[in-house]
Amino acid sequence: MSRFLGEIRQLGYVVHDIEAAMDYWSKTLGVGPWYYNPKVPIVNYRYKGEAHQPHNSVALANSGFVQVELIQTRNDVPSMYRDFLQAGRTGLQHIAYWTADYDADLARLTRQGFKPVMSGEVGERGRFIYFDTEYHPGTVIELSEVAGPKGKMFDLIRESSVGWDGSNPVRPFPDLGKL
């Protein structure tokens, strides 16, 4: 367990073809079902202090306690995902820790010297922030707030993976406004 924020809760993979990645993970690795959003509703997005409008497709599934996130960028907005791809990489780009006390954990990490690079919000009380921690590929740290509907969605995704029989491998994201 990390001495910083508890257990790693998510592994984030940047891919060129999210549909092919979901197919591989479900058919070959047996991970699913996938909850897919072709355009994640990110608000208040900032990269290196500047506001942008990203268009990212995301798919989420669990393998046991750990959530797997597949990310495909659909526009050329500056992001850590784009940087990762432009460096010639695909695959594991970040690990995420989840928190219900985002403000306190963010303050603690910044006091410890962690430097924010990318941030935004997905749903009410669904803030996220990525830090400049990539000392080798796949080590970017994300702090993800799960106090609101996004946390309920993550619970639903984990619960649906328990005993999943391979049927209906790709499902739409639930409406965060109704969770």
Shape field: globular
Element order, helices and strands?
Answer: EHEEEEEHEHEEEHE
Mean pLDDT: 95
Number of helices: 4
Helix percentage range: 10-25%
Count the beta strands: 11
Strand count, sense and closure of the main sheet?
11 strands, mixed
Determine Rg (CA atoms, Å): 15 Å
Distance between the termini: 30 Å
Derived structural class: alpha+beta
3D structure, described in words:
The protein is of the alpha+beta class. Helices cover 22% and strands 34% of the residues. It contains 4 helices and 11 strands, in the order βαβββββαβαβββαβ. Strands 4-3-8-9-10-7-1-6-5-2-11 form an 11-stranded mixed beta sheet, sandwiched between helices. A hairpin with a 5-residue loop joins β8 (116-121) and β9 (127-131). The two termini are 30 Å apart. The model has no long low-confidence stretch (mean pLDDT 95).
List keywords for this structure.
eleven-stranded mixed sheet, 4 helices, 11 strands, single chain, alpha+beta, 179 residues
What is this structure, in a nutshell?
This protein is an alpha+beta fold. 22% of the residues lie in helices and 34% in strands. It has an 11-stranded mixed sheet with strand order 4-3-8-9-10-7-1-6-5-2-11, sandwiched between helices.
